[in-house]
Write a structure and sequence with these properties.
Strand content of chain A: over 45%
Oligomer: heterodimer
Largest interface: A-B, 28 and 29 residues
Number of strands of chain B: 11
Largest sheet of chain B: 7 strands, mixed
Order of helices and strands of chain B: EEEEEEEEEEE
Distance between the termini of chain A: 41 Å
Shape of chain B: globular
Largest sheet of chain A: 6 strands, mixed
Strand content of chain B: over 45%
Structural class of chain A: mainly beta
Distance between the termini of chain B: 36 Å
Helix content of chain B: under 10%
Shape of chain A: globular
Helix content of chain A: under 10%
Amino acid sequence: AQSVTQLDSHVSVSEGTPVLLRCNYSSSYSPSLFWYVQHPNKGLQLLLKYTSAATLVKGINGFEAEFKKSETSFHLTKPSAHMSDAAEYFCVVSDWSDRWGAQKLVFGQGTRLTINP
Amino acid sequence: EPEVTQTPSHQVTQMGQEVILRCVPISNHLYFYWYRQILGQKVEFLVSFYNNEISEKSEIFDDQFSVERPDGSNFTLKIRSTKLEDSAMYFCASSDQGIDEKLLFGSGTQLSVL
């Protein structure tokens, strides 16, 4: 079974400084990996996805993530944090369904990102 | 961008009562999902639905739960007799393809069972 582990439950950075949210995955085959963000009282929004193409994936709002098979990692980064980045971030791996090709997502426990002025 | 719509945003019910959570997926999507997040815990997969039937369900999705797409636009989750431990945020999602495609999530329904 696929799984992801987010190494930090809470990350706090100052506005304008880099962001690093760490994620390690476990998969018995080449995984599809995603980062989702959840702002307060909002739904889950896809930031970016990796599906075995380029290992460096660019997403929305200046975020990017690098797939490193040797380290089984998929860390999320942003060069310069903005106040609007404050949210909960989820690292997610896609697991196969036995039928119909539908997928189910396996979520990490989330990392709460706080931005200090 | 089109959105997945969920209603109500917050529902309070008494233990043992039936609840129906409603979702309107993206109109041309074919795959539909329910996930839930108990406070302080991970987001968990409940069920996926394709071609008018359940394609997969988790061990959480027992006989108390059912899903339906009654009219080609709505996608509902029914809990027949709610328990205290059903209190959670329930997310609906849809996608136009199965494997590796992004799921679009609704903003969730917060279910509180008293």
